[in-house]
Amino acid sequence: MRATFLTLIAILFAAVPATAQDTIKIVAFGDSLTAGYQLAPGDGFADVLQAELAKRDYDVEVIDAGVSGDTTSAGLARLDWSVPDDADAVILELGGNDALRGIDPASTKANLDQMLTRLSERDLPVLLAGMLAPPNMGPDYEAAFNPIFAELAREHDAIYYPFFLEGVAGNPEYGLGDGVHPNAAGVGVIVDGILPKVEALIERVRERAG
Fold it and tell me: Which of 89, 136, 196, 201 has its CA 20 to 30 A from that of 28?
């Protein structure tokens, strides 16, 4: 009788779809651009990206791990505990605050390099979102800062999106009054632009899962 009961339980568990286990968890790890600075709940990058992926029938949870004001140094300090053990992939968006503060690009590159190394050691695929230095920083700073992201993406075999604010930066229609952060419409533009790269990231997760 007991054996029959245990057999029935085993059959029932086997018949339950493994939807929870199949959900891909992507951590959006960044600064205020990721965190949805001054935006209403649901209008931030992670929420909008998850909604757009759901429209395309992707079973994906996008975790918002953005902290306003973070530099690459601050991101490195919190990386290990901000990216949970059950994460499947990471979108890495940091560096904008480094450029705004005029931090040495060599330091920015070293911090991002360490983050990418740690994520690689955890076998986590990464989508690296690039950033551009503000023009007021001057051509020398731009020449040192802007190539960092492409170089690191090649070195670490990360999926690369050249400029996180593509289509938004410098366009008042898509920005807040501070001229730096995207408004809700701007987040939509960002998500539309980066979406193909996120789909490539999802495919990389599936390939590694075998």
Answer: 136
Q: Tens digit of pLDDT for each residue in 172-195?
A: 999 998 888 999 999 999 999 999
What tens digit of pLDDT does each residue of 91-145 get? Answer: 999 999 999 999 999 999 999 999 999 999 999 999 999 999 999 999 999 999 9
Catalytic residues: 32, 178, 181
CATH class of 35-209: alpha beta
Q: What does the domain layout of the chain look like in residue ranges? A: 35-209
- Where are the alpha helices (H) located in the chain, listed in sequence order? 2-15, 19-22, 32-35, 45-55, 72-82, 96-100, 105-121, 139-145, 148-156, 184-209
